[in-house]
Amino acid sequence: MIKKIGNKMDKLIEAMKVAFATHFQYYVKSHGFHLNLVGSDFSEFHQLFETIYDEAQDNIDSFAEQIRAIDSLVPMAIPRIVELGKIKDQLATQDAMKMTKELLADTELLNKLLADVYDLAGAERCYGLQNYLADRIDFNAKMIWQLRSTTK
């Protein structure tokens, strides 16, 4: 178990909680977009959004375990996730291209947060956490490429 070392570890823990909450919001939003698609390109977008939300859902538990491994509790209340997370809710139904552009921006935002946490983890010599984050960053980079290509 890692012991807290001054302010740096506190910054890492807080950054992990923000990234986790944002990741959770990302899952909910991408799943909601998947469920509410309509239009002539339904199948194409439905599959793309499913890939995104499936992967995000599959990583909620492992993301939470990374927070527990640095000796902290995981945000679990919806109001706390909304407070910490950086993704804006989308309450109105949009066309598939607008959803895609919004998910692109959200994926870029999430990847920026993960990269910041990666740097903090390196400063604390949390190499396993860095490995986990590197995998997340790489997957999101692929999704950014696919989402961006879809919007052209």
Outline the secondary-structure elements:
Layout: H1 6-35, H2 42-58, H3 60-69, H4 78-84, H5 96-123, H6 127-150
Helix pairs in contact: 1-2, 1-3, 1-4, 1-5, 5-6
Rg calculated over all Cα atoms: 16 Å
Number of strands: 0
Low-confidence stretches: 1-5
Termini separation comes to 47 Å
CATH class: Mainly Alpha
Order of helices and strands: HHHHHH
Q: What descriptive keywords fit this protein?
A:
single chain; 152 residues; Ferritin; elongated
Explained architecture:
- The structure is a single chain.
- With 152 residues, the protein is mainly alpha-helical.
- The protein has one domain (6-150): Ferritin, core subunit, four-helix bundle (Ferritin).
- Helices cover 76% and strands 0% of the residues.
- It is built from 6 helices and no strands.
- Helix 1 (6-35) packs antiparallel against helix 2 (42-58) and helix 1 packs across helix 4 (78-84).
- The longest helix has 30 residues, at 6-35.
- It is elongated.
- Residues 1-5 have low confidence and may be disordered.
Briefly characterize the structure.
The chain is an all-alpha fold and 152 residues long. It has helices at 6-35, 42-58, 60-69, 78-84, 96-123, 127-150. Helix 1 runs antiparallel to helix 3 and helix 1 (6-35) runs antiparallel to helix 5.
